[in-house]
Design brief:
The protein has helices at about 1-15, 20, 80-90; strands at about 25, 35-40, 45-50, 50-55, 65-75, 75-80, 100-115, 115-125, 130-140, 145-155, 175-185. By secondary structure, the protein is mainly beta. The chain has one domain: Lipocalin, CATH 2.40.128.
């Protein structure tokens, strides 16, 4: 009896600290967004992705054991112009018939204190992968955890706007990506 009580206690501790408990984190899509800002001939062009998903196993008290990954449906890009949105699906831009999704997978997360973290991972777009460092800030209220961050990507590193749009004086090489990801089920900060 004593032995099985110890086994149950050990199993309970292991289960409580395992990723299975953290896997209950759920993306709240209606309160989340991924937006981007590029420049065409010096004029800012704002857009957003309407379809994306996040898989999170994030513990703010143990970020080094945490994992975060995203998939973004590239055909869901919305910049407020249907003709341009159709153009973005073509081979020179996102080539969504061959590469329907952009992906991100973390390989290291470090706490910077005060709800700030540094997430390092691989960003993949159009079959090209690059290491990125993304600073994020996590806030919590009423059972909802919200991670906000932004980073700049070089579109030509991913062959976005290839061919005739390759000239950064027409479309700037820098694209700012900003996000707000809301989840439930995260441990307290």
């Amino acid at each position: 009896m004593k032995r099985s009580l110890i086994s149950v206690s050990v199993a309970s501790v292991l289960l409580a600290s395992s990723p299975l408990v953290l896997a209950q984190q759920k993306l709240e899509l209606k309160q989340s967004e991924i937006v981007f800002v590029s420049k065409q001939m010096g004029v800012p062009v704002d857009g957003k992705f309407k379809k994306f998903d996040a898989q999170m196993n994030f513990d703010p008290k143990s970020p080094q054991t945490s994992k975060v990954s995203f998939t973004v449906d590239l055909a869901s890009a919305d910049i407020g112009n249907t003709d341009t949105e159709r153009e973005l699906t073509k081979p020179g831009w996102f080539d969504t018939s061959k590469f329907p999704q952009a992906t991100f997978a973390s390989n290291a997360i470090k706490s910077l204190g005060g709800g700030k973290f540094e997430v390092v991972g691989k960003l993949g777009i159009k079959g090209n992968a690059r290491d990125v460092v993304v600073p994020i800030t996590v806030t919590q209220a009423g059972g909802l955890s919200t991670a906000r961050g932004e980073f700049v990507l070089k579109r030509l590193d991913f062959k976005i706007g290839d061919g005739e749009w390759n000239d950064p004086s027409l479309v700037a090489n820098d694209v700012t990506v900003k996000f707000k990801i809301a989840v439930t089920g995260m441990n307290p900060l």
